[in-house]
Design a protein that fits this description.
31% of the residues lie in helices and 22% in strands. The protein is globular and about 45 Å long. The chain is an alpha/beta fold. The relative contact order is 0.18.
Length: 191
């Protein structure tokens, strides 16, 4: 079992059946060239789960729905565009691997054997938001899937699952692997 802690979550992922594109030697030279990746990838019931997580609880006092959800006749919020890029770029990297091009062959050599051939994908985004922003999750999910609709069709994915952390860790695809970290205690206090 490999253990990671990120964005307020603990990940216990199966050895030999997970990967992080950010750790792939073939990805690192491209990461500074406007190429993004989703945080965690693992196999669950013959499907590859690709998950992006973000914790906005410490930075959201000044944020509103307009910081996440696109509005007609306005530029897209950068947080929205970042999600679109991370999902799109991750899909492109997997398709490059499965296409057999030289870069893709290098990437596949670093990944678990079970994903070196095309597999069904599960795309998910988990966001930790305070209550005043959770009301925008539905709008954000709709906008994200509308924006990605054609790209998702190309890879055989119906939709990106976008949810808050509580929903994420309650779902069978995620709860064997993902849990919340215990809140940090204030300085000087021991548990």
């Amino acid at each position: 079992m490999a253990v990671y802690e990120e964005s307020g979550l603990r990940f216990e992922l199966p050895e030999g059946a997970h990967f992080r594109l950010a750790a792939a030697a073939s990805y690192r030279p491209l990461s500074g060239q406007h190429l993004k990746e989703m945080d965690f990838c693992w196999l669950h019931e013959d499907r590859m789960v690709l998950l992006e997580v973000k914790d906005f609880t410490a930075t959201t006092a000044m944020l509103t729905g307009a910081d996440f959800v696109p509005a007609k006749n306005h530029p897209n919020p950068w947080r929205f565009d970042e999600l679109v890029c991370k999902i799109t770029d991750t899909l492109l990297m997997m398709l490059a691997g499965w296409s057999g091009n030289p870069w893709g062959k290098g990437l596949l050599a670093e990944l678990p054997a079970a994903v070196r051939k095309p597999v069904k994908l599960v795309l998910a985004v988990g966001l930790d938001l305070p209550a005043h922003l959770k009301v925008y999750l539905g709008e954000l999910k709709t906008a994200l899937n509308d924006r990605l609709k054609g790209r998702l069709k190309l890879v055989g994915v119906e939709a990106v699952a976008l949810m808050d952390y509580d929903t994420l860790i309650s779902r069978p695809t995620f709860n064997p692997y993902v849990s919340r970290l215990a809140p940090a205690l204030p300085d000087g206090i021991q548990g």
